[in-house]
Design brief:
Elements lengths: L1 H15 L2 E4 L5 E5 L7 E6 L12 H9 L2 E4 L20 E2 L5 E2 L7 E2 L2 E2 L7 H11 L3 E4 L3 H5 L15 H17 L2 H12 L5 H21 L4 E6 L9 H7 L3 E4 L2 E4 L4 H7 L4 E5 L4 E5 L4 E4 L5 E7 L4 E9 L6 H8 L9 E4 L5 E9 L3 E9 L3 E8 L2 H4 L3 H6 L2 E3 L1
Parallel strand pairs: 3-10, 4-9, 4-10
Antiparallel strand pairs: 1-12, 2-3, 2-11, 5-6, 7-8, 13-14, 14-22, 15-16, 16-17, 17-21, 18-19, 19-20, 20-21
Length: about 400
C-alpha cells in the first residue's frame, strides 16, 4: 500500500515538473453551453507590438490551433492600401560607392510601438496567423466605424492630455495587461476616459453590445477565437457578462507554460508566411502574411502587405509589358535614384536581369525598388520601412521571394 501511495504522489510530482501556471491571468476565456457543438474562446488584446505581449500561454496556442476561425474587432488588413504606421521619415546617407545607409540603428517609432517590437501589433498578428493557417476570418465591426469613432467624441481644448501624461497612462495600461488583470484594466480605462464625457460608453459599452450580438451569431455556426481589446472583457457591461446573459458558460482558461513546446504550439508558430500565386500571370510572391490584392481592368495586379507594428511595407506590381520600351527606360521610370546612388543593373548566371536601387518619390518616400520583366509582364517590387529595416538585408530577402514564370 505504501508503494502505491508513493507511486501516486511521485507521478503527480513528475507531471508538475516543467510547467508553471499563472493563476492571475484572465485574458483567455472559454465559451460553451447554450447548445454549442464546439467550444469557442475569447482573448483580450492590447493594440501594441511590444514583444512582451506575445509571450502567450500554451492554452492560448491551444485555442488558436483548435478553432476554425479567428474573430477581430475589424479587418485590419483592409487598411494596407491606406495606412502607413511610420511616425517619422528616413534620411539616407551614401558611402563613396553609392551604397545607402541611415547612419543610426535607433528604432523608428510607429503608431503601435517601434521597430524593436514585433512586426505586427498584437491584433494584426492574429489576423496574419489566421490567413497563414488557412482559417476563416470574421470582423465584428466595419473599418469605417472604427475610424469614425473618435471623430464623434467632442474634446475641448482644455481637455487635451499632454504627451507625458498620455505616456504614463499607456505604460500603466501595458503593465496591467501584462499582469492579465482585466478588472483593473476596465477601471483604468474608465479613469483615463473620464475627462471626455460620454466617451467610455461610446468606445466601450455601446460597442460591447454590438460585438456581443455579432459574436452570439458566429459561435453558433463556427468554433472561433475572438480577439478584442482587453478593456472590452470585464464588468457588468463587458463581453464576458453580456455573453453569459445570452445563456453561454464562460470559464477562465488557466494560463500554463511548459518548458517543452506542445505540438499545437509548434504548429501555430510554424505559420510564418503566405505564398501568393496567380496561374494566369505566373506570379509567385511569398509575404509574411496575406497581401491586399487589387486586380485592374488592364490585367495588372497590385499586392500590398505591411508590418503595421514595425512600419515596414512590401508592394508588388505586375503590369502588362510594353515591348516598345526597354528595361533601362522602364527602370528609370520606377526608380527615382539620387545622384549619389544610381540604380544598378544585375545579370544573374541563369540569365535573369533586373535593375535595383534606392528611389525617392511620392507617396512612399525613400524605398528600395527592383524592376524586372519576362516576355509578358513588367514586375516592380518596392519595400521600405524605418531605420533598422533600411539598414538591413530584409529588402533584398523579400526581392528574392518574388518571381514570375
Amino acid at each position: 500500500m505504501k508503494f502505491i501511495v508513493f507511486f501516486f504522489f511521485a507521478t503527480l510530482q513528475f507531471l508538475s515538473i516543467g510547467q508553471r501556471t499563472d493563476a492571475q491571468n484572465e485574458l483567455l476565456w472559454e465559451i460553451s453551453g447554450n447548445g454549442l457543438k464546439a467550444k469557442s474562446y475569447i482573448f483580450g488584446s492590447l493594440h501594441s507590438n511590444d514583444k512582451r505581449l506575445f509571450q502567450f500561454s500554451d492554452s492560448t496556442y491551444f485555442a488558436m490551433n483548435a478553432v476554425q476561425g479567428i474573430v477581430l474587432e475589424t479587418d485590419v488588413f483592409s487598411l494596407f492600401d491606406r495606412l502607413d504606421t511610420r511616425k517619422e521619415e528616413i534620411t539616407l546617407l551614401y558611402d563613396s560607392n553609392g551604397n545607402p545607409y541611415t547612419g543610426t540603428d535607433r528604432p523608428s517609432k510607429t503608431l503601435y510601438g517601434d521597430e524593436d517590437g514585433m512586426p505586427q501589433f498584437l491584433d494584426a498578428y492574429f489576423q496574419e496567423y489566421c490567413f497563414n493557417a488557412n482559417k476563416k476570418f470574421f470582423p465584428l465591426e466595419k473599418v469605417e466605424d472604427q475610424l469614425n469613432l473618435l471623430s464623434n467624441i467632442y474634446i475641448s481644448d482644455d481637455q487635451e492630455i499632454n504627451f507625458i501624461a498620455n505616456q504614463i497612462i499607456q505604460d500603466k495600461l501595458l503593465n496591467l495587461y501584462l499582469s492579465g488583470n482585466i478588472q483593473a484594466l476596465d477601471k483604468a480605462m474608465k479613469i483615463s476616459l473620464a475627462a471626455y464625457p460620454g466617451s467610455y460608453d461610446k468606445i466601450i459599452v455601446d460597442r460591447n453590445l454590438n460585438m456581443s450580438k455579432k459574436l452570439d451569431s458566429l459561435v453558433k455556426t463556427n468554433s472561433v477565437l475572438c480577439v478584442v481589446g482587453a478593456g472590452h472583457l470585464s464588468g457588468d457591461r463587458g463581453l464576458i457578462q453580456l455573453l453569459r446573459n445570452k445563456g453561454y458558460r464562460l470559464r477562465k482558461v488557466q494560463a500554463t507554460f511548459a518548458d517543452e513546446n506542445p505540438s499545437y504550439k509548434t504548429e501555430v508558430k510554424a505559420q510564418k508566411s503566405y505564398l501568393f500565386t496567380d496561374e494566369k500571370t505566373g506570379l509567385f510572391a511569398k509575404f509574411p502574411g496575406k497581401p491586399l490584392l487589387e486586380t485592374r481592368e488592364d490585367g495588372s495586379l497590385s499586392l500590398t502587405y505591411r508590418d503595421l507594428g514595425q512600419g515596414n511595407s512590401y508592394l508588388v506590381e505586375l503590369l502588362p509589358l510594353d515591348n516598345s520600351t526597354s528595361l533601362v527606360d522602364q527602370a528609370e521610370t520606377y526608380i527615382a535614384s539620387p545622384d549619389a546612388s544610381p540604380a544598378k543593373y544585375v545579370l544573374t548566371d541563369d540569365g535573369f536581369e533586373y535593375f535595383q536601387g534606392i528611389s525617392d518619390s511620392y507617396p512612399e518616400g525613400i524605398k528600395w525598388v527592383r524592376v524586372s520583366r519576362n516576355e509578358n509582364y513588367l514586375l516592380v517590387i518596392k519595400v521600405y520601412g524605418g531605420n533598422k529595416f533600411m539598414n538591413s538585408n530584409r529588402p533584398e530577402l523579400f526581392f528574392n521571394k518574388v518571381w514570375i514564370e
